Amino acid sequence: MNSKIKVLQVIPKLGYGGAETGCYDLAHFLSENNCRSYLITSGGPLLKYIKKDKVKLFKLPVHSKNPLLMILNSIFITFIILFFNISIVHARSRAPAWSCLLATKLTRRKFVTTFHGTYNFNNSLKKFYNSVMVRSDLVIAGSNFIFSHICENYEKYLHNKKRKLLVIFRGINSKYFSQKNVSNAKLQKQVEEWQIDKNKFIILLPGRLTNWKGQIIFIEAINILNQQTYVKPFSSIILGSDQDRKIYYKKLISLVEKYRLTQIIKFIPFCKEMPLAYKLADVVVSASIEPEAFGRVSVEAQCMEIPIIASDIGGSKETILKDKSGLFFKSGDPISLVEKLKEILNFDDSTLKLMGIEGRKNVLKKFDIEKMCNSTIAEYKKLIN
């Protein structure tokens, strides 16, 4: 790989989401593959893990949608591009992408964007704002679902023949999300901390507490399941932060109390090491009522060799091997989810283990972080050449 390739990634914040962890992983992978790696962000919990000897870090308010700040950011980015002789600028969100677009036009450098979500729009102005993500030299879609979404909604912005649109599936760290990475001591400590009864079948629903993640559908399904006869003892965990959505969180609590499920559904706000949470589960549920751009929970669960039940929309349809590594239920339908939960509950241990093995094989083949990074660097090289 040409050591002269210098890549500047720009992302609003470095949190624990899929886009952020992908940015973080690529930043370090670049420096380990004879590229220079630079990163601009406004902050975030992942910042403390950045290896300063591998990644040059800049802090700018690139999370802001204030037009004046966006213009100021573009001036600073232009200076950084020229001073460090950056080859490629890679933006991962709309506000910083507008700043990067202006900076790359001024400096005549290559511009790359990753389209991470479907970005809602209800008027032409909002759609124009979103369109910056397809105004680059290379547009990366994180799944075939996102690729189709771009083609259907932003076709007029793709007419420029110099632009390239392709799919590079988001990757996860298969070494981190591995059963081998979870010690019995840590697992036991987590069981005690969360007061988990391991004699019961554990159903895990991870994801931030927001309506579209389907927590209400999940609670409705657990209520119905709890009324069924001849079902093995089970308990469930809703794992995720309310992110200051206090009203929604209270609504979920009230629903659990209404159905008298306080002994069956446990709310956990945060888990520092997600592999531990997956390892504790017998099945993982992704109940989103809106399409997932990629479906990171589904991929992480498979990587941890845990069967997954997911709604039949969005990116999850691409990442799960139907009836091999997981099951699908009709989106927004708690009765359909109950049917799939009962199916999983009736599986014997060997069937569950086989589904887990198939899931990890699926992730290693298609969704490993190294595969994502190698594909991205290969496209960078083509762009430079």
Description:
This protein has a 7-stranded parallel beta sheet, with helices on both faces. The longest helix is centred in the first third of the chain and has 18 residues, at 67-84. The chain has helices at 18-31, 67-84, 94-107, 124-130, 144-153, 184-194, 215-226, 246-258, 274-280, 296-303, 316-319, 334-345, 349-366, 369-384; strands at residues 6-10, 36-41, 55-59, 88-91, 110-115, 138-141, 164-167, 201-206, 234-239, 265-268, 283-286, 308-311, 326-329. β4, α3 and β5 (110-115) form a beta-alpha-beta unit. With 385 residues, it is of the alpha/beta class.
Could you name the key traits of this structure?
single chain, 385 residues, alpha/beta, Rossmann fold, 2 domains, seven-stranded parallel β-sheet, six-stranded parallel β-sheet, elongated
Main sheet: which strands, in order across? Answer: 3-2-1-4-5-6-7
**Would you tell me the overall average pLDDT?**
94
Number of separate structural domains = 2
Kindly identify the CATH topology of the largest domain: Rossmann fold
Q: Give the CATH level 1 class of the largest domain.
A: Alpha Beta
Percent helix among the residues?
A: 40-55%
Radius of gyration: 22 Å
Using DSSP, what is the number of strands?
A: 13
Number of helices: 14
CATH A-level architecture of the largest domain: 3-Layer(aba) Sandwich
* Major sheet: 7 strands, parallel
